[in-house]
Amino acid sequence: MSLRQQGMFRRLEQFQLTEVLLAPQQPGVYIIYFKDGTPFYVGRSRVSIHDRLWKHVRGKGSSKIKEALEKGTPFQFEYEEMISVEQSEAILIKELGVMAFGNLRRETDPADWT
Fold first, then answer.
1. What domains sit in the chain, N to C, each tagged with a CATH number?
2. Between residues 86 and 98, the one the model is more confident about
């Protein structure tokens, strides 16, 4: 069962300026997908999901996303507002796997940090 089917995320949107403008100015996590539904990037913002996605869609965020957009790769995205974005991102990366993502940070749960 996908995270969306579990009710964790909002519906997929096209990764375009007009859709990103509607993302909230709240902390949270987001997933950027290839058009076929394969996850490409999991990210977080401690301040504003909107601001992070805005940077990505304009090519000012992740270099991996910028490179893909410059090649014309179509993306979709979804997001969810969260209190602990680090923990949420770690759960997503664990559930979705890390090898196919552009960020490959292999994050872990902050509760496990020493």
1. 13-99 (3.40.1440.10)
2. 86
